[in-house]
Amino acid sequence: xxxxxxxxxxxxxxxxxxxxxxxxxxxxxxxxxxxxxxxxxxxxxxxxxxxxxxxxxxxxxxxxxxx
Length: 67
Hints:
Blueprint: H1 14-29, H2 45-56
């Protein structure tokens, strides 16, 4: 089996990196703490979010973006 080197001219996820940098700057300037939760179906993401909201809602403003 032979191997072939391929020259990478542009990062594939460059647009994603730029958007992430914009979001990071926005969160930093507004002192917003953001968490991205990803896992397989049935792993307990919703339960974790609900318990976290119950524990912190008295002291913090909390929002959830579902997508």
